[in-house]
Design brief:
- By secondary structure, the chain is an alpha+beta fold.
- The chain has three domains: 64 residues, Arc Repressor Mutant, subunit A; 79 residues, Arc Repressor Mutant, subunit A (Orthogonal Bundle), CATH 1.10.10; 49 residues, no CATH class.
- The chain is 53% helix and 14% strand.
- Strands 1-3-2 form a three-stranded antiparallel sheet. A three-stranded antiparallel sheet has the order 6-8-7, with helices on both faces. It has a two-stranded antiparallel ribbon with strand order 4-5.
- A hairpin with a 2-residue loop joins strand 4 and strand 5.
- Helix 7 packs across helix 10, helix 8 packs across helix 9 and helix 9 crosses helix 10.
- The longest helix has 23 residues.
- The radius of gyration is 21 Å and the shape is flat.
- It starts with a helix and ends in a 12-residue tail after the last helix.
Length: 226
């Protein structure tokens, strides 16, 4: 095992090259097979473990650039300000103005969440309500849950009115173009630009409406288009 000073230097070199590392890499870097020793060295810096891959990846505390949801993805490996998947789901659902469906959370976190959500409901840390052929996950607090359900019903009603006004051919064109984009997350603005270039006039707002109805994960409007 490297001493404290040598360990600090070794970890700095490692994470300058690779923002994320697994336990085997850390073991080789610090010249030890002791998990306790590895975590003790990481703790000196402050670190996050991934909520994906069974928590098997690690990064130093200053590296993640968390988004508005408190999430950071690196090459398919997810990290959260809340730490674990369970804590992350609990925080996201409790603070969501209109709750979240399973599909929305799955797209947002890019990982299977069904079993974890079910566990949180059984522990009464979250609630759920059947709305529009899907379960809406909501706060366990009755007052907060009622507000989330009311807000969700309002959004669904508004979405139905707006989307129903769009020709079905437009909806199909947007969905097909989204598939062709071939990305985990795609910008509504990009889809609008592509379709407009092909002679199909669709606004960014209309694409956003369709994305919302079909549970498609979208990049923010400020994202850089590629």
């Amino acid at each position: 095992m490297l001493d404290k000073l040598a360990s600090a230097r070794a970890l700095k070199r490692l994470f300058r090259r690779f923002p994320v590392a697994d336990l085997n890499t850390l073991s080789r870097t610090l010249n030890t097979e002791s998990r306790m020793s590895i975590f003790r060295r990481l703790k000196d810096f402050g670190y996050f473990s991934s909520y994906t891959h069974a928590g098997g990846f690690y990064t130093l505390g200053h590296i993640p650039q968390f988004d508005d949801y408190g999430l950071w993805m690196h090459q398919g490996i997810g990290f959260s300000k809340e730490g674990t998947l369970k804590a992350t789901l609990s925080k996201l659902v409790k603070t969501a103005p209109s709750g979240y469906t399973h599909t929305e959370l799955k797209h947002l976190l890019r990982v299977r969440v069904h079993n974890t959500l079910l566990g949180l409901v059984r522990e009464e840390r979250l609630g759920r309500e059947h709305i529009e052929k899907a379960y809406l996950y909501i706060s366990a607090d009755a007052g907060e849950a009622a507000e989330q359900i009311s807000r969700r019903n309002m959004l669904l009603a508004e979405s139905d009115k707006r989307t129903n006004s769009l020709p079905i051919t437009t909806v199909v064109d947007v969905l097909i173009e989204t598939i062709h984009a071939g990305k985990l997350r795609v910008s509504p603005r990009l889809i609008s630009q592509r379709l407009t270039a092909r002679g199909c006039s669709v606004t960014t707002e209309q694409v956003e409406q369709i994305f919302g109805q079909y549970g498609i994960d979208a990049l923010k409007k400020t994202a850089v288009l590629t």
